[in-house]
Amino acid sequence: MDYRVYIAEKLNVDGIAASDIALPPNSEMGDYALPCFKLAKIFRKSPVQIAEELKNEFVCDSVISEVSAVNGYLNFKINKIGLAQNVISEILERGDNYGSSEEGKGKTVCIDYSSVNIAKPFHIGHLSTTVIGGALYKIYACLGYNVVGINHLGDYGTQFGKLICAYKKWGVKEEVQKGGIHAINALYVRFNEEADENMEAEAREYFRLIESGDKEANELFEWFKSLTLEYVKTIYDKLNITFDSYAGERFYTDKMQPVIDELKRKNLLKESEGAQIVDLEPYGMPPCLILRSDGASLYATRDLAAATYRKNTYDFYKCLYVVAYQQNLHFKQIFKVLELMGKPWAKDLVHVAYGMVSLEDGAMSTRKGKVVWLEDVISKCVEKAYSVIAEKNSALENKSEIAETVGLGAVIFGALYNNKIKDITFSYDKVLSFEGETSVYVQYTCARANSVIEKSGQKIQLPHGYMPNNAEFEVIKALALFPRTVRDAADKYEPSLIARYAVDLAQKFNKFYIECKILTESGDIKNFRLALTKSVHTTLKAALSLLGIGAPEKM
RNA sequence: GCACCGUUAGCUCAACUGGAUAGAGCGUUGGUCUACGGAACCAAAGGCUAGGGAUUCGAAUUCCUUACGGUGCACCA
């Protein structure tokens, strides 16, 4: 039940909607509140007076147990017994499905994320798009949407001509096969260091050969591509990330012309300095380049084709682009161009922008070797997790497996805990910290809850009419917030809300856990506390799972 | 130069989108050790929400302005 809706309906005052019902700063005041200041103008009375009058009119019932008027606020306390009963029984009943809904049924959401470049290994700069997109995928799926995860591969451009050129000059087949993506990347880096004008020209020619369908060039390219995909898939597996489509830039090679024709037909295309552009000056933006002066297409051209293709293929309700804010202008431009083309769905395109990652000593630079590879971060976290486990719980059987879950959780969680728009300075100290507001804390809490349940050795049975104490009630209120949090995270494209929620719930549970004994109690108290513990365990697991993080039963 | 984004405790960040006394974690100091899992819990200290104006019952949140930092601005992706 949504208490805000209930209260608003019960009040039945013009101008008061569920969204006007707020949460008081602390729970001693109440569980919900209505600020009456807005009503002062309508009723031409002081807010204090209005609150007082509304209080007197309000009849408490089985849902709202108490109303008070304080300084212009009307505070409500909800029936603790009823809330406890409702929330816990719902969680016990729905289990892993708690928080999920059908509200997105029949609607498709496309999410363009991660979008790796061929021949470039993953560094920590690629982590945000991957885990934010991955989490949004799970969050929307949880709300019943049909989700299409798209890895818009960076597989188009002269750099692949350079790569082939470098391979032809220095490459050894066996070494590349063995070294995989790092070997390819090394060739590319070497090209950029050593190439002269002749090689540059050669590279352009190789790119042309790829484009014109030359057999050898394409075979090489496909080989590099498959080595790249093989590599990234091992990382996606670890991060619990999946894709439904790997249609990258090249995929749109033959889908751009119709878009260009349409732009022409609609008189949007203009020549400027030899290039074909869409003029966006009236909208305060630089022009959107469609064709270079040599007739070649550009990034924007392919994105226009891709958006059109996705609409035609998936008929999306929304299409999200999880791409760093560096590309704010680019997306503003292509969204505007589609709008000018008269596409009503242009409004359904959303650039989900996130902040950039830098290192403590400045920006990353592949060329200067100032890079932190994602694989290294992962393995360090897993190693650390292993050593902590070995120290704290040496008897544990499957230590490596659990260390993997814990270590990867730390990597993912670290990238998801803050508002996505904020820049991040990467530090090993931070991801390797397993205390406080971390995934490890949440996982630990989960394991702790699980341990209590196991030790009890009894079936979970929620007693009727149990009156929760304060610590218990705080946990219950937090539990009740989960479905709303999932919806918020989807509405705001903000997985950090889930991460923060998980920590908050874990904190409240731990407080309860320290204050209230469970197994040494008996009867209703024990049964209720076990049911509460089980509910927390279920909800924390569900929250972590939306982020792609596992929750070991023991750790 | 223009545009967009950011600035909250020593550090890293929240604040349910305009509501009551701005909250957490880390770090610091002091406590809880018969532990249902101490990867935990409690307490203390720490704030003119970068500065200045405006809007109103009420501003960290909206508007203007200044400073600092970041990003982007025509044939790369």
Put simply, the count of helices is 20
Q: Determine Rg (CA atoms, Å).
A: 28 Å
CATH classification class of the domain at 108-253 and 298-359: Alpha Beta
Could you say which structural class the secondary elements and strand pairing correspond to?
A: alpha/beta
Q: What is the CATH H-level superfamily of the domain at 108-253 and 298-359?
A: HUPs
Query: What is the molecular shape?
Result: globular
Cross-sheet strand order for the largest sheet: 5-4-9-10
Helix % is 40-55%
| End-to-end separation | 35 Å
Biggest sheet details: 4 strands, parallel
CATH topology of the domain at 108-253 and 298-359: Rossmann fold
Q: How many strand segments?
A: 12
What does this structure look like?
By secondary structure, the chain is an alpha/beta fold. Among the domains are: 3-78, Arginyl tRNA synthetase N-terminal domain (Gyrase A, domain 2, 2-Layer Sandwich); 108-253 and 298-359, HUPs (Rossmann fold, 3-Layer(aba) Sandwich), CATH 3.40.50.620. The protein has helices spanning 3-11, 37-43, 47-57, 80-94, 127-142, 158-170, 173-194, 197-211, 215-239, 256-265, 299-314, 328-340, 374-392, 399-416, 428-431, 439-456, 470-480, 482-491, 496-515, 523-546, and strands at residues 32-35, 64-70, 73-78, 108-112, 146-150, 269-272, 275-278, 288-291, 318-324, 349-354, 357-359, 424-426. The strands form 4 sheets. It has a 4-stranded parallel β-sheet with strand order 5-4-9-10, sandwiched between helices. Strands 1-3-2 form a 3-stranded antiparallel β-sheet. It has a 3-stranded antiparallel β-sheet with strand order 6-7-8. Helix 8 packs across helix 9 (215-239), helix 10 (256-265) packs across helix 11 and helix 17 packs parallel to helix 20. The longest helix is centred in the middle third of the chain and has 25 residues, at 215-239. The mean pLDDT is 94. It binds one RNA strand of 77 nucleotides through helix 2, strand 7, strand 8, helix 12 and helix 16.
